Amino acid sequence: MLKFTLKRLLILILILNTAVLGFPSFVPASPIDTQTVIQMDERLAHIDRIRAAMAREDVRDTMIGMGVDPAEAELRVDALTLDELVMLERQIERLPAGGVLEVLGVVLVVLIVLEVLGVTNIFTHL
Q1: What is residue 3's DSSP assignment?
Q2: What is the rounded CA–CA span in Å between residue 55 and residue 9?
Q3: Model confidence over 41-58: pLDDT tens digits?
Q4: How far is CA 90 from the centre of its chain?
Q5: What was the pLDDT predicted at 111?
Q6: Are 89 and 49 in contact (CB under 8 A)?
Q7: 116 by DSSP, 3-state: which?
Q8: Which region holds residue 100: left if phi is over 0, alpha if psi is between -120 and 50, else beta?
Q9: Using CA atoms, how far apart are residues 105 and 96, in angstroms rounded to an integer?
Q10: What pLDDT does residue 117 have?
Q11: Rounded CA gap, 110 and 75, in Å?
C-alpha cells in the first residue's frame, strides 16, 4: 500500500513539474534606443576622466588630509547625473595642471550639494 501511494505521489510530482516547465516565463523588457546607449557611453567616459583626475597621488593625499575617503568620493561620482558629471569635468579641465586644491574643492562642493539634496549622508558619519 505504501509503495503504491509513493509511486502515485512521484507520478503526480513529475506531471506537475512537466506542466510547469511547459509554460514560458514572462520577463518585462523593452528595447534600448540608440540615444540611451550613447548617453550611457558618454556617462562612462566622463566618469573615467574624473576618476583619472582623482587617482593622482597628490589629489588622494589632499583628499585624505581633508577627511574625505577617496573610495567614498568615487562612489559619489558614480551617483552623479550626466549633467553634473559634465559640469564637474569642465571645471576640472579649466584648472591648471597643479590645481590640486581646486580639484578637491570642486569634489567637496559636489559632495556638499549631494548631501543637501539628500542623495548622500557622508557628513553625518563624521
Answers
A1: H
A2: 63
A3: 999 998 898 888 888 887
A4: 21
A5: 76
A6: yes
A7: helix
A8: alpha
A9: 14
A10: 73
A11: 12
Asked if 92 contacts 103 with a C-beta cutoff of 8 angstroms, the reply is: yes
Q: What is the pLDDT of residues 60-115, one digit of tens each?
A: 887 788 777 888 888 888 888 888 888 888 877 776 555 556 666 777 777 777 77
CB burial class (10 A; 0-12, 13-18, 19+) of residue 73? Answer: buried
The x, y and z cell numbers of residue 63, run together, are 583628499
CA 120 to chain centre: 13
- The residue assigned the cell 550626466 is 82
The 3-class secondary structure across 13-61, one letter per residue, is HHHHHHHHHCCCCCCCCCCCCHHHHHHHHHHHHHHHHHHHHHCCHHHHH
